[in-house]
Structures are given as structure tokens and as C-alpha cells.
Amino acid sequence: MFGRKSSDSGTVVRVLAEQVRRDISTGRLEPDAKLKIDELRQRYGGSAHSFREALTQLVNEGLVEASVQRGFRVASATRSDLEDIVRLRAEIETLGLGWSVKHGDLAWEGAVLAAFHTYSRLCEKTASDRTGLAIEWDEAGRHFHAALVSACRSPRLIDFQARLYIQSRRFRYVELIEGRVDLDVEKSDLREVVDAAIARDAAAARHALSHHILGALGR
């Protein structure tokens, strides 16, 4: 019984965190906006305790900031924030990809190819409905980039890559909606990454991935 209660509570926290995470990523909760527990409960439901735990989780992810004086607020999303996130992503993901190319087996290759196929197809569909498919498109992108580093044999790198991707989502969302993401180039860039990775050319794969990620700074 105690285990079930704890599990149920954890599920509620995860659901609340996901709802707030999604709304931060899509801009419904704007950068620097105050996050008042009572207002959040009216909007999403849940208890005050569950929301504090959910917001603490998002603090650890870098999407929410907390202070004794100011409480919780959405983290800033400035040009400097974007540059910092993108440069770190380029370093971490290319490192993880290089290790995955070295250690990955056929199952890893299959996961990468499957994730790329899904993302590529969503790029094609999203071209005609950027607003309606933005969340699904971004989620497919998250799975693809996670697949690239999944065989790196470093749980800490995998965790850091996931956090950085989450922090980059609201920038990517806005860029997509505003038409600043060329979806054909997106597919072409990542096809180069996949081809080089499957050919076990770590240097070429890392170069292609770095070029792709850093391209966000030019949009």
C-alpha cells in the first residue's frame, strides 16, 4: 500500500511537470513569467505539494528558476541563453555520437534509422501545418537526437544531452512556427549524420552533427 501511494504521487508529479514543460516549450508560459502555485493549480489541477515537486524537477532541468524572495518563475530565453545552449549541445551531442559510433551495435543502428525515418516523415508533414504538428515534430526530433547518443555508454552524458535538448525546445518551436526552420535542409543535414554514423565514420558524423546544431545560431 505504501508503495502504491508513493507511485501514484510520483505519477501525478510527472504529469504536472510534463504539462508545464510543454507550455513553457510552446510559449504559453512566457520567459520570466511568475509561477504561482495557486494559479497553476487552477489551470492544471493537482495539489500544492505535487506542484512544488513538479516545479523543483523543472528547476533541475533549467526551465524554471527559484529563489527564496521571488518564488518560481519561467527561466529567461534570451539570445545569450540560446547561444549557450546550442554551443553546449554541439559539444555534448557530438562527443556522445562519437562514442556511440565506436560502441553501438546493430540494434543501435536500427534505432537511429527508425528514429530518423519518423523525424524525416514528420518534417514532410509539418511543412504544410507547422502550428498543428509542431509538438509532434519536436518530440520526434528529441527521440532522434537521443538515439544518436544512446550507445555512448555514459549515463551522465545521456542525461545532460536530454536536459540541453529540453532547454532548446522553446527556441526551436518559435523558429518552426515563424518559418525559420527549413525542413528540407533539416532532413538533408541529418541524413548526412545518419549515413556517416552507419558507415562508422565518427569524424564525419560528428562534423555533420555539429554543423547542423550550430546552424540554429544563424537563423
Automatic annotation (TrEMBL):
Q: Which SUPFAM superfamilies match?
A: GntR ligand-binding domain-like, Winged helix' DNA-binding domain
State the SMART domains in the record. FCD, HTH_GNTR
Residues forming the HTH gntR-type domain are 10-77
Q: Which Pfam families match?
A: FCD, GntR
From which domain of life does this come? Answer: Bacteria
**Per UniProt, what is one GO molecular function of this protein?**
DNA-binding transcription factor activity
Give the matching PROSITE patterns: HTH_GNTR
Q: Does the keyword DNA-binding apply?
A: yes
- What keywords are assigned to this protein? DNA-binding, Transcription, Transcription regulation
* InterPro entries membership: GntR_C (IPR011711), TF_FadR/GntR_C (IPR008920), Tscrpt_reg_HTH_GntR (IPR000524), WH-like_DNA-bd_sf (IPR036388), WH_DNA-bd_sf (IPR036390)
Q: What is this protein called?
A: HTH gntR-type domain-containing protein
Q: Which organism is it from?
A: Limoniibacter endophyticus
